[in-house]
Write a structure and sequence with these properties.
Blueprint: H1 24-42, H2 46-52, H3 73-83, H4 86-98, E1 103-116, E2 125-132, E3 138-142, H5 151-163, E4 170-172, H6 191-218, E5 225-228, E6 231-234, E7 237-240, H7 241-250, E8 256-262, E9 267-269, E10 274-276, E11 280-293, E12 299-308, H8 316-335, E13 366-371, H9 397-408, H10 425-436
Parallel strand pairs: 3-4, 12-13
Antiparallel strand pairs: 1-11, 2-3, 2-8, 5-6, 6-7, 9-10, 11-12
Helix pairs in contact: 1-2, 5-6
Length: about 425
C-alpha cells in the first residue's frame, strides 16, 4: 500500500495566487506519473493501465464518497483512440525509436475528469438584473467577470434565447455590486453555470408577466402566447416584440426583475473530507505526439488530437477557443514556464523575456480539436451545458507523458524516466543522461 500526503509549506519566496485549475493540475500530474510508473514496470501501454482504472459500474465512488453517475470517459477515450489512430501511430513511434538516432518520438493518450463547483459551497450562488425598456431593448447585469473567456456573450445568449431576440438587443454593462450584490468569484469554471441560470431566472420572471398580461388583454389561454424570433404570437395574432412591450408598459406591467440561482444538491464536510462537492463532472481526452532531440533536450509537439466534453454547448466557437487556449497554456506550464529564484528569494523569471510562455511557433504542427457533440449534461445546468474553463488545462499532460516516452526509449523503455515539470530542454537532457548512466 502507498499513502500520499500533501502538506502546504511556507517559504521565503513571494506569495502566489490561484491559477486555472486551483491545484487540480498539480494533483493530476502526480497521479498520471504513478500510472506511468506502473505501466513501465509492467511493460504495458500506459493507456491500458489508465483504462483499467476508469470509473465503472460497481466502482463508481470517489475517495471523497461522491458517486460518479455521469461517467462518459470510456466512450470519449474509445472515440479519440480510434479517430487519432493511436494504436497504429504508437506502433510507428516504437518502430521509429527502434532505429536509434538522436531524434526520438513519443506518444501518449491521457484522460481528464474534473469536478465542477466551488468546494466552498456558499460560493455556488449568483444574481442577475434584467431590465426590458419600453422600446424593446434589454439591459442585463450579472455577477460574473468577463476576462476574455466569452462569459458576457454566453449569458447574453441565454437572455436573448429566452425572449427569442437577436443578440444585438441585449446590452450588458460592467459587473458592479451596486446592481448585483454579494457576487461570487468568477472561478471554478462556474461563471456560465451560475450567472447564466441567474439571468434565465430573471428573464423567466419577466416572461411570465408578459404571458399573463397578453393572455388577459387579448382573451386567450396563457399557453396560446408564444415567443417567436423577434415577434410574439397571441392566439392567431402575431405582433412585433416591441408592440407587446409597449402595450405592457402602458398597462404598468413590471418589466424588470432580479434573478437568483444556487447550485442544488451539493454539500461538503471539510472535517470528514466527504460529501458531494461537485454538481457534475466534465471530461476530456488528448492524444499528443512529440519529437525529442536527445543531444540538446529540445522538444517539438508534432500532433495533438483532442476530444472534449462541454455538454450541450452554448456557443461551440467560444468553447473550442477555450479548449485550444487551455491546451496551449497547459502545454507551456508543463514544458517551458520555469520559475527561477535567486539566493535572496527574488523571482528572476518575472517577465515574458524570462518566463517563457508558448509562442505561436510552439503550437502543435497538427492540432485537431473537437467537442463531444453527443454529450448532454444530465444535471439541470443552463441548456444542459458543461463548464469549459479549467478542465482542458489538464489535457496537455499527454504532451508531458509523450516526452517521457521519447526519453524512456534511450533505455529501451525499461524504466519510467525521472522527468521534472516543466520539461525544459535542460530537464529533458538531464532525464536522458540519467537513463544513459
Amino acid at each position: 500500500d502507498v499513502r500520499l500526503r500533501s502538506r502546504p509549506i511556507q517559504t521565503n519566496t513571494v506569495s502566489n495566487t490561484a491559477f486555472r485549475g486551483f491545484g487540480g493540475p498539480q494533483g493530476l500530474i502526480a497521479a498520471e506519473r504513478m500510472i506511468e510508473e506502473i505501466a513501465y514496470t509492467q511493460g504495458r501501454d500506459p493507456l491500458e493501465v489508465r483504462r483499467a482504472n476508469f470509473y465503472r459500474d460497481g466502482a463508481d465512488v470517489t475517495p471523497y464518497h461522491q458517486q460518479v453517475t455521469d461517467n462518459i470517459l470510456t466512450r470519449l477515450v474509445d472515440e479519440l483512440e480510434a479517430s487519432s489512430d493511436y494504436q497504429a501511430r504508437r506502433k510507428a513511434v516504437l518502430d521509429f525509436n527502434a532505429k536509434g538516432g538522436v531524434i526520438r518520438k513519443g506518444i501518449a493518450l491521457t484522460p481528464v475528469k474534473f469536478g465542477i463547483s466551488f468546494t466552498a459551497t456558499w460560493y455556488n450562488q449568483a444574481g442577475a438584473l434584467v431590465h426590458v425598456y419600453s422600446d424593446g431593448s434589454i439591459h442585463l447585469n450579472h455577477g460574473g467577470t468577463e476576462m476574455g473567456q466569452g462569459l458576457f456573450t454566453k449569458v447574453a445568449q441565454v437572455v436573448a434565447e429566452a425572449f427569442q431576440l437577436d443578440l444585438s438587443r441585449i446590452k450588458i454593462t460592467k459587473t458592479t455590486t451596486e446592481k448585483v450584490p454579494n457576487t461570487s468569484a468568477t472561478a471554478a469554471s462556474s461563471g456560465s453555470d451560475l450567472n447564466g441560470m441567474a439571468a434565465l431566472n430573471a428573464a423567466g420572471q419577466i416572461k411570465a408577466r408578459l404571458v399573463a398580461f397578453a393572455a388577459e388583454k387579448w382573451g386567450v389561454a396563457e399557453d396560446a402566447v408564444q415567443f417567436l424570433p423577434g415577434r410574439v404570437a397571441v392566439g392567431t395574432q402575431i405582433m412585433p416584440w416591441e408592440d407587446l412591450i409597449k402595450a405592457a408598459y402602458m398597462a404598468r406591467v413590471q418589466l424588470s426583475a432580479a434573478g437568483f440561482y444556487k447550485t442544488p444538491e451539493i454539500h461538503w464536510d471539510r472535517t470528514k473530507g466527504q460529501g458531494r462537492p461537485f454538481y457534475y463532472f466534465a471530461y476530456g481526452a488528448a492524444c499528443s505526439e512529440v519529437s525529442v532531440d536527445t543531444l540538446t533536450g529540445e522538444t517539438r509537439v508534432d500532433r495533438v488530437d483532442v476530444l472534449h466534453d462541454v455538454g450541450r454547448s452554448l456557443n461551440p466557437a467560444l468553447d473550442l477557443g477555450q479548449v485550444e487556449g487551455a491546451f496551449i497554456q497547459g502545454m507551456g506550464w508543463l514544458t517551458s514556464e520555469e520559475l527561477v529564484w535567486d539566493d535572496a528569494g527574488r523571482l528572476r523569471t518575472h517577465a515574458p523575456s524570462t518566463y517563457k510562455i508558448p509562442l505561436a511557433s510552439d503550437r502543435p504542427r497538427i492540432f485537431n480539436v473537437a467537442l463531444a457533440e453527443w454529450s448532454v449534461n444530465p444535471e439541470r445546468t443552463i441548456k444542459r451545458s458543461k463548464a469549459v474553463g479549467e478542465p482542458p488545462f489538464m489535457l496537455p499532460v499527454s504532451v508531458f507523458e509523450a516526452i517521457g516516452m521519447a526519453v524512456a526509449s534511450v533505455a529501451d523503455y525499461r524504466t519510467c524516466p525521472r522527468l521534472d515539470a516543466p520539461a525544459t530542454p535542460e530537464r529533458v537532457l538531464m532525464a536522458v543522461e540519467r537513463l544513459r548512466g
